[in-house]
Amino acid sequence: MKIGLSDNLAGVIEITATDAARAFRDLLDRVEQAGESFRITRHGRAIAELSPTGTGGVAALQEFLQQHHARYPEPDEDWWDDISWVRERRRPIEDPWDR
């Protein structure tokens, strides 16, 4: 296994599909108890991620932004630069059906 970065920049552990199948129960325990995340690969290509539910979803992001806006109604001077930086570095979404 090797440590990588997920799409949300949190640490994830890369594991092959074969190893994941052999240790699935242990992976689920680690996700549930330690909050760990795993990226499952096949032939060196990421095919799935296994992570705790309720983290990093759109609803959580919306809630965070609403709370932040209540505290800081106007963005700071670097906000648009930060947004532009993130947009420039995002990866395009791959169509899983386009093969």
Short description:
The longest helix is centred in the middle third of the chain and has 14 residues, at about 60-70. Helices cover about 40% and strands about 20% of the residues. The protein has a 4-stranded mixed β-sheet with strand order 1-2-3-4.
Description:
- This protein has 99 residues and is of the alpha+beta class.
- It has one domain (2-89): YefM-like fold.
- 42% of the residues lie in helices and 21% in strands.
- The chain is built from four helices and four strands, in the order E-E-H-H-E-E-H-H.
- The chain has helices at 17-22, 24-34, 58-71, 79-89; strands at 2-5, 11-16, 38-42, 45-50.
- Strands 1-2-3-4 form a four-stranded mixed beta sheet.
- Strand 1 (2-5) and strand 2 (11-16) form a beta hairpin.
- The model has no long low-confidence stretch (mean pLDDT 79).
